[in-house]
Protein 1
Amino acid sequence: MDIVLSGIRPTGNLHLGNYYGAVKSFVKLQDEFNCYFFIADWHSLTTHPKPEDIRRSARTILAEYLACGLDPKKSTIYIQSDVPETIELYLYLNMNAYLGELERVTSFKEKARKQPDNVNAGLLTYPTLMAADILIHRSTKVPVGKDQEQNMEMARLYANRFNNKYGVDYFPIPQSFSLAGRGIKIPGLDGSGKMGKSEGNCIYLYDDPAVIRKKVMRAVTDAGPQAPNSEKPEVIQNLFTLLGAVSSKETYDYFDEKWNDMSIRYGDLKKQLAQDIIDTLTPIRERIAEYSANTELLDRIALEGAEKARVSAAKTLRDVREIIGFRV
Ligand code: TYM
């Protein structure tokens, strides 16, 4: 049976990109597969967060996972740092990960450019830690957004390399998974390509209706269509991509037609988009508030999740140690 795994770095709150790129798939997959969903707090250490922020932000994401519909009875939900087995596998994978290939990873190059004073080894070996997260449960399906494709390629590289090096067929080769059948990328509303925390252009799941309206009404647009049935420029396509994610097909088609016959009014489109986002997020926001207030429940769920995850992780690690030649 397929083993599904995915994770999110706890560096703030979940936003629409996280939801449509990842969490919405998690919710669906948990009914069909053996799923592991974790909070990647080790990954967030590359930027040196304060201890109190680490504790708080893991709980925040946990509350948001649950509010979106992740169910600890169906899935194993855990915090990465509660499963130390991952780190041992990370070490083994690092022994067969090479400087040249790690330096060529686009997100490493970007971060190294943006933060030249903090090009640490953890940043360089981010892809091997991500591979360890995936391989520690011998996962086969990894629901992620499009921006994670290169990290997924690295995970496949390290799985294959381990198998080849030791002449075994131990790690399955993990595949990316997306509900839409291809990677999804939710755009920002500021004309930049991607909605993301570091881009500062997010609509957060906990945003209240007034905030959502304000953010959507401010979205960058253009002077309007210049000819019937013309191709949409990127900033307009971005609005339609969001509409495609949150609105009904009828709504999408209505505005698409208006674009094609040049009668579109961006103000109307934005109002509708804002309303549909609000309708989608309101129940989630209410549940986030409830779960966030119940830290006892959150801690219990994290503890039980870690116990389950460690059983699976320990089994993999025993096998891996034996394959490598260590005492088990
Ligand atoms: P992170 O925390 O940056 O993002 C979490 C998930 O949200 C998706 N995502 C998006 N999808 C579509 N459009 C967007 N604008 C958008 N923004 C974010 C991401 O693709 C991701 O699926 N390296 C990972 C965390 C991680 C992980 C793993 C994931 C660590 N280990 C093992 C899967 C398996 C990350 O930084 O995601």
Protein 2
Amino acid sequence: MAPLRTKQKDSKEEHSVLNPRTTSYEFSGPWGTFFIMLVVPIIIYGLYFGCSEETGGCPPNLSLAISSIATIGTQSVDVAGITSKLWGKLWDAEAMLYYLAWYLFCVICWAVLPGEYVEGRPMRNGQVKRYKANAFQTFLLSLALASAYIIQFGPDSFTFVYHKWVGFITASIIMAFIQAGFVYVMSFRPGKLLALGGNTGNHVYDFFIGRELNPSIGSFDIKSFNELRPSLITWAFIDISMACEQAVRRGGWGNVTDSMWIVLIGQIWYIGDALWNEPALFTTMDIISDGFGYMLSVGVLSWIPFTFSVQARYLVFRQRELGHLVSGMILLMHFVGYWIFRESNNEKNEFRNGKNPKNLKFLTTNSGSKLLISGWWGLSRHPNYLGDLLMALSWSLPTGFETPITYFYITYFTILLVHRERRDDDHCAKKYRDDWKKYKALVPYKIVPYVY
Ligand code: NDP
């Protein structure tokens, strides 16, 4: 028995050396994360009830919204009755079934469609994960199937997402919660590599931030799978459903507004690009350093598809024609943004893969890693964020200026990227120490050259 106890003790010690306790909190600690957990679903539903035909437009008609709440209150005086009425508004069994079928379809595509296996960055335990990269193939297959279905049965056959919007939100939040709970419980099994930021010992905080770095079932990596497939591909199909609803209302595809086309082209281009460049995901902060918890699961499964598509949903009931000049200018903004985003990300990815075709200058650091100091990465420390922000703005402009709600995405995204820049700055300061100070002196701007 004794040798076994020693062995167990050794492996416990190894485990705690590899997985040190997290000693500082982000997001104002457990209370802050608890608050965000409550607020995120409220915002996702709020963007619907605050901007929809059901509540009288965007912003909503207050008397309509109040009378709808009053109905819930007066007809049932007991709390249980009010709760069940509210639940009745949010829950849609058919939407849940569609959602589960769609999720399962994505898993099956991951398993059966061909795809190259790509190696991730070496992890703290010295291991290298291999990811199956077939998200773009999944997108093409689902796009082909959906197009065939819409051509065969007409655009009205694909408007169900518009009509079951709230039910789909609920389905995605339930899925996010179940997944986060599952991976949290599994993270306590022996031999798991934990995220450096998600091992505080506080259940609420760790559940939110993500305790395990790369939860997986066999070779199925839960985090990267969710980040691209049920997240981005769902967003694309939500947009397509909105365009179908507009086509039905305007009497055919030929009458769909230019504003709807711009949002559709811009967002599907962006999604297609992310899926095509799937291997680049494996070098991002999300994959390398963040755990998979409720923050990421609700972010990718609910927040991305249902808040990034508000503009397309708005254009269903507030149809706008922009004309060639304005449409051209907005598309130009989108593609300039895309060019900056793609070029800068390519420069860094090639460099991180040991290539430097443009012969860019770099700083050699004591950590063994090098930092680019010319090209896009000589202009600011996150030129890719600038390109992303320009694209985001180009997807809101087609909705005009009647409501700030369709500018939610660009506003939130600016806050997210500014916060992300700070998190990355902290991360790089720890990794590169004095070299990071040297780098910051050489490249002083954070995101927008000469401005910020
Ligand atoms: P970055 O692509 O900017 O990556 C930051 C990392 O790059 C650093 O931690 C560092 O890692 C490395 N790095 C920093 N400076 C240099 C340099 N000068 N030369 C070489 N390597 C450098 O950040 P993200 O992972 O946050 O973003 C990736 C993309 O995803 C961006 O285009 C962003 O806009 C997009 N994004 C989109 C979101 C959305 O919701 N649509 C959300 C978040 C991001 P190391 O040195 O360890 O390699």
